[in-house]
Amino acid sequence: MSNTQDALDQFINVELGQPVMAEAKFLAKQIAEEMGEHALAVLFYGSCLRTGDGAGLMDFYVLTDGAEGYGSGAVSRFAHTLVPPLVRYAKNEFDGKPIHAKVAVITLERFAELAQHKAFDISIWARFAQPTALVFARDKTVQARVHNAIRKAIITGINWAVYFGPDEGTAGAFWCALFRATYAAELRIENQSRADQIIALAPQRYDELFLPALAAAGYSPKSTGQNTFRLSDRNKRRLALKLKWLGCQITSKTVNLLRIFKGAVTFEGRADYVAWKLERQTGVTLELTPWQRDHPLLASPQILFQMWRKGAFANRH
Prior knowledge:
Layout: H1 7-16, H2 22-35, E1 39-45, H3 47-51, E2 57-64, H4 74-82, E3 86-94, E4 97-107, H5 108-114, H6 123-128, E5 132-137, H7 140-164, E6 168-170, H8 171-185, H9 192-201, H10 203-217, E7 222-225, E8 228-230, H11 238-266, H12 271-282, H13 290-294, H14 300-309
Helix pairs in contact: 5-7, 7-8, 7-10, 8-9, 11-12
């Protein structure tokens, strides 16, 4: 982060430092302590941050200093380095009530790489262009690196929002167009209404972020009144972006699938885990045979065919 901050930097400073509920602070601290010297930062994001629901399934990203943060096993480290993140669940009690979270672990270096516009896997920048709180950071240097990664994610997001957005519209219309596209580009059960809900939960946040993000990305929007904007320079790279987005769709769905099968190897339950994850993300129910459960990797062609036949790879608009 440079010494001279612009409006986007100021926005990120406030958002990363926002107060979060006590349950999230407690669990984030526990997660960081368990990972010891490998944990550089813990980010809190997702629906529980937006709603303040401490009883729901909280979402954390732990950023580490290297692949050792993925665990002690060489095979596990290799798998999660190749297809990050490592995903696990954390549970505890707070004030006598159970709290739990989904915890994703990734190196800070890889996190920053996937936040950039050149990344074909959209999983990081699409999530972290949304509200995020930095609950733990080892030091000021780490804090600055996280800030820069979040800045990259937002700039990547606004570039695609300009591409997918209307010729003229409100800030919310541009952001909604972006998240509809990202939801369709991944293996997800949610449809475009989920993207609209993301904006509806924090409309002021996206209004306030819109112009600073555009300025940081090099756009000069023209106000057309009533909080609507037109971007005269949005068509300069549309063909290149169209081809790039096709690559993003293919890459993101492929990586999503690889993450599911990686989970089948690194989690207990293996094939049943694959079936559960697919049903959760695509709405497709797989009927697995005993042989497929015992040999999930050998059975993967059969499982892929069954997924295709049931429409798991269809776009969800």
